[in-house]
Design a protein that fits this description.
α4 packs antiparallel against α5 and α4 packs across α7. The chain starts with 16 loop residues before the first helix and ends with a helix. The protein contains seven helices and no strands. It has two domains: 35 residues; 106 residues, Chromosomal Replication Initiator Protein Dnaa, Chain: A. By secondary structure, it is an all-alpha fold.
């Protein structure tokens, strides 16, 4: 038996004029769509460049308070060292300054609770949440019913005003 090894041709159906017109029409539609898409991209880019020409940023110095500033202010107020405030010791004379430091950091900076906890007592964010809750509920050493609580609130307001005014002075220079 002899096998024909010649490549065979697939016979295509003859293309009619309507099929040819439809195919040409689809090709044209695709070209138009691609061109429109490119034009939209160019218009967006042009708009962006024009807006950059008009936009002139005002480089206003930000009033920024650093954690170190708060630490030094609290330590100066309570006559303790930063090492004592950031130590793991839980002496009664360190609890109030530490709580004051944490709450000032929460109110005056944009740092996360985890970062504030690590910077203060090498603890996690739950310590910071606890001190924030004490202040909000006016409990324990933040109580308005005790003299120590009233002193702590006065110290809080005093240091907050002092740190804010120092930050403003630094940005004006």
């Amino acid at each position: 038996m002899i096998v024909d090894t010649r490549p065979y041709k697939v016979m295509k159906a003859p293309v009619t004029e309507t099929d040819k017109k439809e195919r040409d029409q689809k090709t044209l539609q695709n070209k138009v769509f691609n061109m429109e898409h490119r034009i939209e991209k160019l218009q967006d880019e042009l708009e962006l460049l024009r807006s950059q020409l008009k936009y002139k940023p005002k480089f206003k110095k930000e009033e920024r308070i650093w954690l170190r500033d708060i630490l030094e202010a609290v330590c100066f107020k309570f006559r303790i060292t930063p090492d004592q405030l950031t130590s793991n010791r839980r002496f009664a004379e360190l609890v109030r300054p530490r709580s004051l430091y944490i709450n000032l950091c929460l109110d005056l900076t944009k740092h996360s609770k985890a970062h504030i906890g690590r910077s203060c007592v090498h603890k996690d964010h739950t310590t910071v949440l606890y001190h924030e809750k004490l202040k909000d509920n006016r409990a324990k050493h933040w109580s308005l019913k005790s003299d120590l609580g009233l002193e702590l609130w006065a110290s809080y307001e005093e240091l907050k005003m002092k740190l804010n005014s120092n930050a403003r002075r630094k940005t004006e220079k």
